[in-house]
User: Fold these one by one.
Assistant:
Number 1:
Amino acid sequence: MISLDQVQTRLAGLQCPICKQSAFFVHPRAEESFAEQFYKARCNHCGYMFQVSVPTKPIHLADPDTAQWLAELPCPVCQAAGARADFRCIPTVRESLYFVTCTHCHSPFQERAPMEAFE
């Protein structure tokens, strides 16, 4: 499972939807569900908050459709198909982003979730 420090570091590649800055704090207290831990990320500049979820169970058990999508996802670095979900965030009501790692070259990248995976 990914650490909160790693989540904060990777969120630096994301712009705040309100102020367009890229510095976030992830509160260490989480709510837990069947297969995820939910955290709140807060923009250090404007205070805007959004949800971050870290999987606690293998994604193929909790969400087979998303697991299939990740298995087919091409890496932007090596072009091989296959990625592991590290965490997901929902910065706006119309956007869900997966922060993933390539299963071949281990490069981290982010991918916008298809609508059927988001709903």
Number 2:
Amino acid sequence: MNLKVQYSIILLVFIAIAFLSVKAMAEELQCGRCGKTIQGQYVSYSLDGNKKLLVCQKCDKQLLHCKACGLPFHNKDLVKIKGEILCKPCYDNSIFCNICNRRINGKYYQSKDGSEKYCSHCYNRYPRCAVCDRPGNLHRLDGGKSVCDECLAKLPLCGSCGKPIVGTYYKFDSSDQLFCEKCKNHNPKCYSCGVPLGKQHFRFDDGRRVCINCNNRAVYDVEQIKQIMAEVEQLCVKHLGLKVNTPYQLQIKPMNSKSSIQANKAKKGENGDSPLFGKELGLYRRLNGKSEIFLLYGLPKEMLYDTAAHEYAHAWQSENCINNQSLEILEGFAQWVSSQILHIKNFPKTLEHLEARTDNPYGTGYHKVKSLEQRMGKVRMIEYIKKVK
């Protein structure tokens, strides 16, 4: 063998040795946490997709492990919450109880809208809100019901007792406020508008009690009441053609607080007491050739216009209509006149209340007269009213 061939063989041997060394280095195991070559034993963790995470024994012992997935992580990659250590991916994908803030492992419950979730322990331990059904630390209300902070802030307040209303509430045409069932059923009612009264209300000397709202709108000045009566008369003449020729005396009276017997005697002129009793707001009386209109003292302005128009209509009827008309015609026409004045003066709520009445003879009579007006027109209906029984 010549020298050239010998050198060639030696070169090939060195190349082979170098290749085997590189291959051995390529097959060395790297720690998935510190990145160093693993010397000796290591721990293998299964990842998604059949992948493996190899960790040297030193890193596996020194690093903290995620409570959820069990993998070791450096501190910067961990989140500590409620005594648990979680890696950031597990923290992002975990479900936490909205009450105790602990990670839910296994069965859980959720609110109706799905926005909150609860562990079994908290869901079964805490009472649930009577409005949204979510468990938690609640406010206990009258009647044994409990509500959460969020629902409590949204609950309507009773216009009488001022307490939050859960469940059934009541609304009256005369008020924008809402009232709880307890106040509606047990509290005394405002004489003027009928809403349940609260602790703060006004009491007349004649025993009537009215809410603050009605008291603030009431007309107490006698001269102003007389002016309203005069205005109603002018409106009835101008817009309806209803003129009362016989002079009448206007009397502004309190409620008769004695008895219905005394009030009835007053109606007949047997005593000097007020003839107004019960729920009467006004009265027209023709006695011994003398005409009188009585109006209850201290009515809210819209009720004063309503009552004044009603009694003025009766004064007109006493001069222009046949005797012994039915109560439905008498009261129905007076209610119709009131409705016209309320419309002219723009008192929509009082007008709606009048039109909603179905009682006999006031409600049924009003709808009968209104039906006549719709068929005949205003002028012909008024002429018809003069002679119909």
Number 3:
Amino acid sequence: MLKKTVDYSILLAFALLAVMPCSGQDVYNYSGKRYNPYLDRFSLSIGAGLSAYNGELSTFFKPKLQNYYLNPGLGLSFAYRLLDNVSFKAETNFFTLSSESEPVASDPINEVFWSYNLDYFVAGVVDFIPQKRIDAMFSRWNGSLSAGIGQVIFSPRDNVAGGKKFGQIISSGSTSSQYEYARLSVIYTLGAAVKYYINKNQYLSLEGTYRFTRTDFLDALKDTSHSPFDRYLTLQFRYTIIFDSTPNGIINYEKYRKMYSPR
């Protein structure tokens, strides 16, 4: 009787050992990227910030002429993660620009413009630190670079006539003429961001994006002795939410964190 009991105990022990690895794999399979919520595919960002421009009336380094950069803007973007550190995003921004020209003794009336603008573009984003498959290798702080292409819609106005239907072209130092121009231009974007992850589904970021345009009428003024195209940039504080697609019931994520997080 005792021998049979021992035999049954040995068989039961072997059965448990055989079942445990399989059961553990069902509950704690951490090899797949889909089990790390930080690497979920889709995310949505909203942001608010300021903008500045570089053109005939002012440069980026003259804040006094540009209302001290207090030109507000709002942004929205939707991103898709392709690899651990590579994503693609579609972004749109509504923002304002304003500036006046440098005062000169010979011309006491300064040129002034302001505008409401809308741009949209697609961009590739590369993170500095690839986020690994397991949470123990995850970095709360990260940075990224981006580059893209899109379009901007602009409508510059002045505070005298209320709006400029035609652009002004200045040539030969003093000669000027009127020119009807398109209110839409292609843009090329370069961006950089610093990110801080609040948790596995949210992060905050400070993002600056520089735009090269293909128009010289962003301010409705073209000086043939000046750089051929206007440029502008935005600086935004952003909040991003990551859509958690981790399968429910697949893993006990909190237990996993305790098991594998560095002490």
Number 4:
Amino acid sequence: MDVNYPWLSRLFQPKNPIFWILVALNLVSLALSHIAQNYPLNTLGTWVITICALLNAVISAVLAWRLVNS
């Protein structure tokens, strides 16, 4: 697996706390998408979900980048 996908072994690090934060952020992303798709939201609710989802995506990308480059 390391020959074809060396970045995958750098991303999957169960002993690193950043890995578990990424797992938690993915669960938050799952919950946000579930809320956005299954509940009728007014304009404020839509903006709150959108901003939270964007922040979640940015934080996840930064942490994943740090994990791969560590």
